[in-house]
Amino acid sequence: MSLDTPQSIADRVKLRTGINDRLAQDMVRNAFRDLFERRRWSWLMKPGQIVAPALYSTGKATLTPGSNIVTGTGTTWTPSMVGQQFRLGLGTPIYDIIGYNSPTSLTLGLPWAVGTYTQVGYQIYQCFFPVPSDFHAFYVVIDPLYNWQLITDIGQDIIDIWDAQRANIGQSYVTSFRDYTASYNGTILQPITIAGSHNPCLIAGDASYTGITNSIYTIYISTGGTTGTMQFQWKQDTNAYSSATPTTSGAEYYLSNGMAIYFDPTISYSIGDTFIIQVQTVSNPGVPRYEFWPHQQAAYVYQYLYESRPADVFDPGFVIPRFIANTNIMFEMAMQQTAMWPGTSDQPNVYFNLQLAQGHGAKVERLMGDLERQDEEVFMQDVRYSGWISYPFSPFADSNWIASHAL
Q1: Over the stretch 102-123, which tens digit does the pLDDT of each residue have?
Q2: pTM
Q3: How far from 241 is each of 226, 272, 374, CA to CA, in Å?
């Protein structure tokens, strides 16, 4: 038996009711949204993992009040540190790293506000973790090495009572909602030559502008030649040029805010060649971030199951879950919505009939009951057993087992 597709359902609605294709698609889209909000369906569950990087503390850091730039001495910071956290010690706040500028320069999410610190020890690790873009809620989070389940229903206010300084370091046993990420994923335009006659530099394949404002990067060749000989300087907007950067054949060079370039090794550039790159910021909806506490500073992996938010039914590649596509429920839900829509003053809906809508609604509830029963057989939620862990006769819940598990 062939399975329903979103378009085949829309075609059937259009055939039965006479509404246009766009409206029929909208009715099907709304029907699916109402359906997946009905319960935590088994087909919404997905696996995921949190990968905590190892603590980095090589070198020294210098910070100035009012500036969100941290300067390193003896550091080899990398773009992968964007999204991690920076701190000096228990007496200073934890700052998000939002930009990579160079191996000795990072941008913090807020201006440094504690005082002037010159070449002091620091820590870079991650304790706030974003989740997938289709995330709705955790179902379970586990520590596979220590064999325990993390607690997921404790708020930041409770952790702040226990450990406002976040002094506790080690194995996490709590994951707590923190905030939403500020997500910027800008558009990078092709480089343009504004001085000289050579082809411009090229955009690195992994470049992704993460700045929060539109900007212009200027690249200036300060020593001519091919890569390996030539050197360049760069600036963002009206800022001062950077120091001259020697080049290596095939290497990528990170500028700031995710921007990266490389040079064609077959071209011999001339001193004074100048190129510009325009970037335009695009703000995207953020995703939830969760704090894992106590803070894990070793390279570590936590696994989880989460309830996802499905894509739009008319997105390319979307497939209706099999046991839903085997029923008429989305068709009946779309028909119910169509029968409840009166149309417009100049184009009334001939299928508008509230009594007919009630009939479709009755079919929807019957089919919904069948679906919920079938899903309960796959993913039992209505009956849960709790409290058994405290029973002394459990074969594995002795005092040693309980003491080593975060329940």
Answers
A1: 899 998 989 999 889 999 999 9
A2: 0.76
A3: 21, 13, 65
